[in-house]
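User: Second chain of the day. Same drill as before.
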Amino acid sequence: MASLRQLATEVIDAINQPFNELLYQRVKDLIVHERSLAIRRSIQRHGIDSEFKQRYKVPMIRVDKSDFYNIDTNLKVFRSVNKIARLVRFQNDSPFTYVGSVTHDNPFIFVEPFAVEGIDSLRYMKYVIKYSFNNAHIYVFNRNNTLENIGVETIFADPRFVDYSDNTIAPVTFTDDMEFLISEDMISDIKLKIFSGDLRIALTDDKEVNMNEDEEVSR
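Assistant: Same format as last time:
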């Protein structure tokens, strides 16, 4: 796989703008955006490709039941400390391919926020750990008093912003020089899309910024 730096550099070099840092940053964002759209289309046609999945550890904190629809059960409610990075949406009940123990050997059951109490009242679901996703936070419903971390796996819209801090599953900090999670067959299509439309908009915006800066200097 190519790195994000390599892909963005190839684009700006192709239009003879190798030292345009502002354009370089915009092209990176365009690549990430088009990648997300391409993956979503691919999922709709062929299903989820494990090549794009990312896994990391999510710190949890116990919250009051009123923090989540004020549910009336004996369950303890835990919420992810930080918001989860933006996801690539696909047609499934849960937007995650895995939520469970950090060791990846105990998956939790996804429930809709409004269905937590009803599901928990079922005898065979009473002692199953359940989770929901609401307002960019993961909520876990458990009968244990403590839950420090959970493991999460899915496809993220922007792999750069996945929070790898304090991560024992895949301890890594994303940089532009790392392999970017994109398939080879997507690269040419994404470049074509950028050259044919998105890049023209970025160049126009860049020119307007430069003109405004020149006007400020001349005053």
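The helical segments are 4-14, 21-46, 116-120, 184-218.

User: Great, on to the next one.
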